[in-house]
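Support request from a user on the community tier.

User writes: "When I paste my structure tokens into the form, the page sometimes reloads and wipes my input. The last time it worked, I copied everything first. Here is what I submitted, just in case something in the input itself triggers the reload:"
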């Protein structure tokens, strides 16, 4: 039997449902390898979720501090340093309860 120099090639009609991994060789040639993807476990997903939650909590704390600084500057600019903190808290809560627009109308001179 004569060999033609061309090896027999197996042809698959259905490609496996695997992810491609692109690996670059030492001489710059690109090689594609099929790799199975592992399904993330519930434990890993929970761990990741907790880490994200911790990051969000830290970000919220930092943003609250920045917002407090900005609001503090506004209060000082309008002379609110003379108002007792408890009274200021009460004033803000009452204004939010009836709505800012209604509170401004009630406080505005007629």
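"...and here is what came back when it finally went through:"
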């Amino acid at each position: 039997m004569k060999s033609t120099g061309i090896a027999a090639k197996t042809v698959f009609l259905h490609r496996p449902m695997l992810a491609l991994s692109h690996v670059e060789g030492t001489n710059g040639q690109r090689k594609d390898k099929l790799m199975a993807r592992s399904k993330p476990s519930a434990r890993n997903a929970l761990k990741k979720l907790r880490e994200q939650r911790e990051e969000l909590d830290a970000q919220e704390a930092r943003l609250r501090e920045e917002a407090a600084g900005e609001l503090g500057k506004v209060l000082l600019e309008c002379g609110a340093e003379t108002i007792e903190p408890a009274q200021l808290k009460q004033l803000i809560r009452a204004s939010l309860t009836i709505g800012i627009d209604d509170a401004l109308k009630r406080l505005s001179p007629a």
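Agent notes: The reload is a front-end session timeout and is unrelated to the input. The chain has a mean pLDDT of 82. The beta strands are 19-24, 30-35. Escalated to web team.
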